[in-house]
Amino acid sequence: MNSDQPTIEADVVVIGAGLAGLAAARTLTSAGLSTVVLEKQEVVGGRVRTDVVDGFRLDHGFQLYNPAYPEGSRVFDYPGLDLQAFTRGAMVSMPSRNWLLADPRHEPRAMWQAIRSPIGSLAAKTRFAWYALARERMTAAGVIGQNDCTALEALRTASIDDELIDSMIRPFLAGVFLEPDLVTSRRFMDLVLRSFVRGTPSVPAKGMQALPEQLAAALPMGTVRTSVAVSAITGNGPVRVFTAGDETVARAVVIATDPRAVGSLVDGFTAPAMNSVTTWYHRASQSPHELSGGIGVLVVDGRGPGRVGPLANSVVISNAARSYAPPDTALVSSSALGVHDSPADDVAALEHASTLHRVSTRGWELVGKFVIEDALPATPAPLNVRKEVRLGERRYVAGDHRDTPSIQGALVSGRRTAQAVIADLAGA
Predict the structure, then answer these.
(1) Cβ atoms < 10 Å from Cβ of 53
(2) Of 365, 313, 371, whose CA–CA distance to 342 is shortest?
(3) What is the pTM of this model?
(4) Which tens digit of pLDDT belongs to each residue from 79-107?
(5) Segment 1-32, tens digit of pLDDT
(6) Helix/strand/coil percentages in the chain, nearest 5
(7) Structural domains of the chain, ranges and CATH numbers in brackets
(8) Kind of pairing, strands 390-392 and 395-397?
């Protein structure tokens, strides 16, 4: 070896210990490649984080995990996560009362409410149910391969009337896509509906951060290094990864940071548009059984275009996951699309929560608030579900912005990027 050639310290450096980065490290180490994961934060997780405040578990933004995710079922130990299930469906707040529209296979009482509710016609509700069930019978490849259009266009083509869309479907999906106009790709909507029919949205008993923590714990000891910020990348074989006062030399580098950070480390990378969300957590003054009938179900505003209030949804999260709050207390998570960082926004959110839950919120206590500007990549139609992960010169990128904006997408992206690295290094 030339004396000027630096010594290789690792086969691969992964920058970022979110789900995509950890999934990439899992595949790389399983293939026998020495791997170092560098994370600038003090803990793993990226956007999937949980704070514990006064006995309450506060995820960074309202997040759910669906055990029907194929990639998740491959990489996670579900018994170890102790998943706490939510009610499949939504409670729609109308001027007269709240109506539970849920999967009757799991909530038999929802069948009668769906028939009686003034939320769209019975025919429209039936057509939407059949539309969702048809997605469940499709393969993922079939969903991805279909002609694309906006989610709204797909629903209207399926003869689902605007009344049902505006009063239930739009407010529900807005909280998933983090955009209110349903311009999201129908491919992504159909994948989401497919997972909802197949599995029950849940959270780990110890909070969403249990997901990345479990992935990190399964890696070889010393793989993950936290509180290490990367400042620059140079070279193309080997690659030099610079941190504060140090550097790591590797055969390849995987950048699994947020999309904007990718652009600061690699020239020519175009970050996708990102959707924002603000989430409030309140300790309710009511007992848990007084809210949402004692069940953990997403509450959305069904008053249509004339609705007043910032919230996309609200949920008594402790009714689904008792571990999220101290005994005999209720933790309510409420989310609004966009950035809401003023005191007036806090008041408006509380007032809207009062309307949605049909209770007084005067005695509610704010436990935590998260304003997340880059919460999810936007996925307008037409959507390319499998974006390129090679950036050239032994540089690779991973993240849900390369697949779908979801935990499933982040995990798949990590594995797919790692497989590209393995193939390229084997051929070097």
Answers:
(1) 11
(2) 371
(3) 0.94
(4) 999 999 999 889 999 998 999 887 767 66
(5) 344 566 779 999 999 999 999 999 999 999 99
(6) 35, 25, 35
(7) 10-48+209-272+384-426 (3.50.50.60), 51-69+79-205+274-377 (3.90.660.50)
(8) antiparallel
